[in-house]
């Protein structure tokens, strides 16, 4: 009974001649939010479409709760909820009609549909719009309906392709809150090209570049992937860059204006000790020194660069 929730083995997919995904493997064994991060065209949607049985992979296997998605799609899909990049909404239906339709498509027991619709509208905070046509909802509420159709049959595994794309900042926060709630009781995989999105939401991150997985780990591991090599320092006496360059361990100096400098070093410990020491010795009056954390963008760029070398 201890089979993984999802198991993807050596997945590759090719559209005509071009490989979009190459030899991706992973297993999900516990609930949480997993982020699939990659630039446009990296292969995220392809992986998600394959994992949800929307397209059939060229090579490899996908198992959902131990069920082979390729061989038993109907059974495996009972465990899956999917919000594609283009939400499959029907604009001329009301929210309630559409969710009833979605429940029927999921082959839910007809006696359970009404309750399931009421429950999911409550969960996604759209009950007050039950009689409203989907076309007349804001983007944020349409996305909530999209998420509601993905979880109406209480799947163990929910896949959300760019779930906050096109939303305004408030709507983004609201939809993220909803995603966190639904992940409390199930496994959620979401794709995004926005680094801050994975940072805000995900327990685990996979980075995809040109169809290959180039990183898999926690957000903290991602953050610490590149050892920092710069620090900022404020010196009231504002010494010249040349003087700072003479400090052992300092390999570059950038004047940031006023009394602030950015210093590039090879070894953080050594550089900090020497800068503090020299500052005391020369009475530069050091008021602030801090190692700069790499921006997520730097990590992203560095990972992509390393892999494509
Ligand atoms: N139906 C298709 N036919 C041919 N090529 C395709 C098709 N769908 C995707 N591709 C190509 O496969 C590659 C991966 O596309 P995919 O949509 O999976 O990437 P993505 O990471 O989801 O990008 P985006 O964020 O832009 O949706 C791209 O080069 C894309 O042009």
Automatic annotation (TrEMBL):
One of its GO terms (molecular function) is ATP hydrolysis activity. PROSITE patterns: ABC_TRANSPORTER_2 (PS50893). This is ABC transporter ATP-binding protein. It comes from Filimonas effusa. InterPro entries: AAA+_ATPase, ABC_transporter-like_ATP-bd, P-loop_NTPase. Belongs to the ABC transporter superfamily. Residues 6-235 form the ABC transporter domain. Keywords: ATP-binding, Nucleotide-binding, Transport.
